[in-house]
Amino acid sequence: MSLTQDDVKRIASLARIEIDDAQAQAAQAQLNSIFDLIATMQAVDTSGIAPMAHAQEVYQRLRDDVVTESDRHAAFQAIAPAVENGLYLVPKVIE
Amino acid sequence: MTLSDASIAKLAAQLAGKQVSSRELAQTYLERINALNPAINAFITVDAEKTLTEAAAADARIAAGQAGPLTGVPVAHKDIFCTDGWPTTCGSKMLHNFVAPYDAHVIQRFKAAGMPSLGKTNMDEFAMGSSNETSYYGAVKNPWNLDYVPGGSSGGAAACIAARMAPAATGTDTGGSIRQPAALCGITGLKPTYGLVSRYGMIAFASSLDQAGPMAPSAEDCALLLNVMTGFDPHDSTSLERDKEDYTRDLDTPLAGLRIGLPREFFAAGLNNEVATAVEAAVAELKKLGATTVQISLANSQLAIPVYYVLAPAEASSNLSRFDGVRYGYRAPEYTDLNDMYAKTRAQGFGAEVKRRIMIGAYVLSHGYYDAYYLQAQKIRRLIADDFSAAFQTCDLILGPTAPGTAFKLGEKSDDPVEMYLNDLYTIPANLAGLPGMSLPCGFDSKGLPIGLQLVGDYFSEAKMLNVAHQYQRVTDWHSRQPEGLK
Questions:
Q1: A-chain residues within 8 Å CB-CB of B357?
Q2: Is B237–A38 a contact, with Cβ atoms under 8 angstroms apart?
Q3: Which residue among B338, B347, B378 places its CB closest to the CB of A51?
Q4: Residue A17 is nearest to which of B101, B310, B358, comparing CB atoms?
Q5: Is residue A34 included in any domain, yes or no?
Q6: Is residue A10 domain-resident?
Q7: Range of the structural domain that residue A25 is part of
Q8: pLDDT tens digits for range B292-323
Q9: Does residue A13 lie within any of the structural domains?
Q10: With 0-12 CB in 10 A as exposed, 13-18 as middle and 19+ as buried, what is B484?
Q11: pTM of full prediction above 0.90
Q12: Which domains occur in chain B, in start order?
């Protein structure tokens, strides 16, 4: 498998990372060498093997439906790039 | 012996006997940090005032008779742990000037134990790297030779211990990030069984693999630190509900009858000769202590690197989607619309290696590729874990090298990601299986650089691993050697 420049740009766009032509070219070579490494696992016969998502058999715990956290929105928003009246500010999304 | 040479157990005894105060101890280490850190760059943030305030509080606890076993012993924290009121950067421009509004569970535990923080240690950006060169705050230098890397991603933690700028440090290990730098810096480090230490407040890289653990000169130190770090935490859905253990309980158990498994794949081509010789000498030493050896095979461990470089980037691409310039961290100064803000923020805030891994992850999870990559990797992950289960039918512990070589020169591998990834050949399998692993010093190469040996145990066998390491360290002195010319 070999990624083209367009593939690299599409992946960058999926990942929401701006990339210019020169960067895409540099990334293309490095990503391809990594995917060559990854390709060595494709030949393994894994039919009938159950995928292992996790090291331990863990299940989501249930807890009583009670309030456990205090309101700390002022502390959390104090570290945000842009806040107004308790709201996070982002560029206009809906015209 | 100077104060900074003392083990954690000795420091704790001196504090309890009021021969030294926590403030004096903190001052001693802060002075060493002042003198040595400019050359080594092991710390991203040092705040003497905060440290001394915490030390004074520890002294008050000791005076009031309310001390725990390690109250007053200072510790350095990897800058991946959110620490209330301290900058927490994760080695990234993305979190430059991010001051955490809460404590990670691990930090809470050290605070509850009365152990002052000496500062936040340098690391590869978002823990992605094996040389500490991807940090936005500059590379860490190996205290044994400043032209060489300390390993990574917990490179600052390993280097600060090697240079005795701290008696103990926390690290995290996703594919070898505690063990490989411990090996390259000549110290001891342990990655616990997945689920023993809470990940709450530990900035996530690959959630099914990430695990925090202790780093210190000796196994005994690590056992004491593990007693502080482990325990159930309802804030981490993968935290295991188990009875509290005392990890020092077996330190003095004789090794007679211990069966050590030697995986043939860990001694095959690719292993540096000097490393092989030192590890084999350590095996001979353990045999003298009563251990026997058995050849084992971890056949699928050869596939650990390709599997890891699917799973870890996939999980990272999801975890790091939170860095979008909206709620915290960096935001690009100029942009046209929301999507442009995301793309520019992430392009400017992340370094090259982090972007590379996010892109790998985005690709392997994208439509049409999921089965061929992510699912196939998860299936081979099962085969790798099954190899370990089979091996533990015939042996109590697995022993091999921690890394294929000793420290390499700064810049030597930084342009070739694949070459860099091969450093974690022997450490990644334990992460994939969720098993505990540790690295301890077992010699030096002809350049005077430390060599590490790795122990991998069955689930929850930390006390056994620490026992073997401690018995080895009672008859060897590799772990107490220090780089010359630093004092």
A1: none
A2: no
A3: B378
A4: B358
A5: yes
A6: yes
A7: 5-39
A8: 999 999 999 999 999 999 999 999 999 999 99
A9: yes
A10: exposed
A11: yes
A12: 3-251 (3.90.1300.10)
